[in-house]
């Protein structure tokens, strides 16, 4: 595989993008599709080990019911506001009708894009977030209190997550619920959002938050869309957003990604840019929580 050996700068330290791609290739090769017990077990073990190594408490839920359990990773110091992140490690199975130009579970670089099943949905962003968290901790940079929900059944209807997430999300003092990824359309980054249902008690108006976020991430060049990320079925996080939490989604996917189809791909340039965007987002989250006096209440009312 041809990779960019130059590395990239993402705000804290030059990130070795070639090392990231090696990890991504290994993660892609783990066939975490429904019915592939070993592939799913390998991904869970990979993520659990990496998260535990940087101080996350990792819980596995639903292992008695499925080979694709829900992972809950927590790095929380107190009862204050938390950042909730959502991702999934499972990928769509390969249909007989698909006609790939390269092996779907082998990460391949060509035409300035990366090609593989699950590259855009959702393994590249999942691993990019993990890499940035690892780099920040290694460099002694702070993190917000963080709860990361990583499920394994999104492509088969999310039965375990739909069962458990109402109570999980309802118990958190969630400030932001961050979607699994987002899109860039015609070179313009999109910011998906939904304001809290009890916005008056959130301590920050939606327009102020969005303007501040856009300025931090994209120098004001992003475009807001008042909606959630389009998916192929109900999302267990979106279905149970805490009333006091902002929903946000942004990311490196573009409209050439071909999610759930043959020749799924991602722009390598947009993926590289995402490292700096996510790193800045973590700083922005810390600063926003610190300087807006957001309460440390439970914030546990949920909306359907």
Give an overview in words.
The strands form three sheets. Strands 3, 4, 5, 8, 9, 10, 11, 12 and 13 form a nine-stranded mixed sheet that branches. This protein has a three-stranded antiparallel sheet with strand order 6-7-14. Helix 1 crosses helix 3, helix 3 crosses helix 6 and helix 5 crosses helix 6. The radius of gyration is 18 Å and the shape is globular. The protein contains six helices and 14 strands. With 304 residues, the protein is an alpha/beta fold.
Topology pattern, helix = H, strand = E: EEHHEEEEEHEHEEEHEEEH
Indicate the multimeric state: single chain
Distance between the termini: 45 Å
Report mean pLDDT, rounded to a whole number: 90
Inertia-based shape: globular
Structural class: alpha/beta
Got a strand count? Answer: 14
Radius of gyration of CA atoms, rounded to a whole number: 18 Å
What is the strand content? 15-25%
Considering DSSP H and I runs of 4 or more, what fraction of the residues is helical? 25-40%
Sheet having the most strands: 9 strands, mixed
Main attributes?
alpha/beta, disordered C terminus, three-stranded antiparallel beta sheet, disordered N terminus, 304 residues, globular
Could you outline the blueprint of secondary structure elements for this entry?
Layout: E1 8-9, E2 14-15, H1 17-29, H2 37-53, E3 57-61, E4 70-75, E5 82-88, E6 108-110, E7 113-115, H3 119-138, E8 146-151, H4 159-170, E9 174-178, E10 184-185, E11 188-194, H5 206-218, E12 223-225, E13 246-249, E14 265-267, H6 268-292
Parallel strand pairs: 5-8, 5-9, 9-13, 11-12
Antiparallel strand pairs: 1-2, 3-4, 4-8, 6-7, 7-14, 10-11, 11-13
Helix pairs in contact: 1-3, 3-6, 5-6
């Amino acid at each position: 595989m041809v990779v960019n050996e130059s590395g990239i700068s993402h705000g804290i330290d030059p990130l070795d993008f070639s090392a990231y791609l090696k990890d991504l290739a290994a993660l892609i090769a783990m066939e975490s599709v429904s019915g592939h017990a070993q592939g799913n077990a390998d991904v869970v073990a990979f993520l659990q080990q990496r998260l535990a190594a940087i101080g996350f408490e990792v819980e596995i839920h639903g292992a008695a019911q499925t080979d694709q359990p829900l992972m809950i990773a927590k790095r929380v110091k107190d009862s204050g506001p938390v950042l909730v992140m959502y991702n999934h490690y499972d990928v769509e199975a390969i249909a007989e009708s698909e006609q790939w130009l390269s092996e779907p579970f082998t990460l391949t670089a060509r035409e300035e894009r990366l090609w593989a099943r699950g590259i855009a949905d959702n393994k590249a962003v999942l691993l990019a977030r993990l890499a940035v968290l690892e780099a920040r901790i290694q460099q002694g940079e702070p993190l917000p209190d963080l709860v990361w929900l990583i499920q394994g059944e999104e492509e088969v209807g999310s039965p375990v997550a739909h069962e458990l997430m109402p109570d999980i999300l309802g118990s958190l003092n969630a400030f932001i619920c961050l979607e699994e990824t987002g899109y860039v359309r015609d070179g313009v980054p999109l910011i998906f959002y939904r304001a809290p249902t009890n916005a008056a008690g959130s301590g920050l108006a939606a327009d102020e938050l969005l303007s501040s976020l856009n300025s931090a991430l994209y120098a004001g060049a992003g475009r807001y869309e008042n909606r959630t990320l389009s998916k192929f079925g109900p999302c267990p996080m979106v279905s149970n957003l805490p009333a006091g939490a902002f929903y946000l989604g942004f990311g490196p996917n573009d409209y050439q990604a071909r999610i759930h189809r043959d020749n799924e791909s991602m722009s390598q340039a947009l993926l590289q840019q995402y490292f700096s965007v996510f790193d800045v987002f973590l700083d922005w989250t810390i600063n926003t929580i610190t300087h807006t006096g957001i309460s440390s209440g439970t914030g546990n009312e949920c909306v359907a």
